[in-house]
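Data availability (excerpt). The following record was deposited with the supplementary files.
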Amino acid sequence: MFKVYSAIIFSLSFSFAGLLPSAIHAQVDSEAVKSGAKEPLPLDILKEFTDAFGSIKSDYVEDIDDKTILKNAIKGMMSGLDPHSSYLDEQGFKHLKEGTSGEFGGLGIEVGLEDGLIKVISPIDDTPAQKAGIQSGDLIFRIDDKPVKEMDLDEAVKLMRGKVGTEIKLAIIRENHDKPLIIKLKRAIIKIKSVKFRLLEKDYAYIRISSFQSRTAQQLKKSLKSLLKENDQQALKGLILDLRNNPGGLLNGSVDVADIFLNQGLIVYTQGRIKNSELKFSATHGDALKGAPIVVLVNNGSASASEIVAGALQDHKRAIIMGSDTFGKGSVQTIKPITKTTAIKLTTALYYTPSGRSIQAEGIIPDIKLANISLTEKEKKSFNQLKEADLKGHLEQTNKKAADHGKKKQSSDSEKSAKDKKSSAQADSEKNTDYGLHEALNLLKGINILSAKKTINK
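Predicted structure:
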């Protein structure tokens, strides 16, 4: 059985697809009380609880205060509901708030439990975990020489938390590896840059969304403006939207992102027991790309809010989804404060794509499935040539004299621009084994070639 844990101190999505307004909480509570009043309280179970409470107080080997016992009872009550409902103590509630703002401490991984081991759902971009090479699907079986088998997940997570700058050692089992991997990391403050972008070549852009935060849509709009400027104010002919290993985040963040590429229609809707949990989110007029083709890259580390975006664009036939089946986290959690410093995270609804598909435990099935492979040397060479030859301002330095002449004409601003381009080219080179990116770019070009032929035939 796979149980997802909101590893708040070092994850981002917190396993919830959105927050319901506090005004709804009161109405939900009122309706719940009314419906619950129809059935008598199970006095026999309440007696069991009080008997167990009394036995712990009188007979447990150590003296436990009432507050601790009751808090543990709440934790057990919440964890027994589903993998995403939980009790947030003071520290957990604090870290959740920090995480939604895009800055928090830890390793930078979203984790869960599988067969008594910690399973990595996805590493977060530019974090210690991602830089150390931790991958989606990795199974952590030892933390600093302490085995995690059958360990309570809360306890395991606490072992991975610690002072920023301190070292931690993880022993990992990885598929297709005969021997365990030992990975050393340093804990850090995780600063999430939700959106990254670059022009792959003239007319074709790449945008990576690593998580969905309150400012993600704003950052995406700014990225599109920057890409347009870099493309000499010429409209893009295609966009690759990379949602791989994106564990999710805020529901509103995903809705706003999908809205940027849709002119109209339903984006996502939720359904639950309480009427107030039934919400619908629709697109507003205006497609930022004006119909230019989009390829969305996904994998089994794409969860929650990522699946909302992919599902909406797929149902509206606005994008081609490419990659592997997504994680399948299709439930909405309401964060309800219990006190000023604690809260519960309660699953209150499931979300559905515009066509009525429930993503829960199913995920988004790509239009084009890709195997997890790398480019061949021939493909790498071809891909690099495409990017280098089409870079804006690219110069063929046929001889030293011509090269020197070009350098003398550059202003200080031009020199800075050239340095930025060199840095970008180096970043592209590091990713030239990305088979998914390679195939997505080829697909966009093919779509444009077919569109041009249809126009000519008309």
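Summary of structural features: The chain has three domains: 2-190, 195-369, 377-457.
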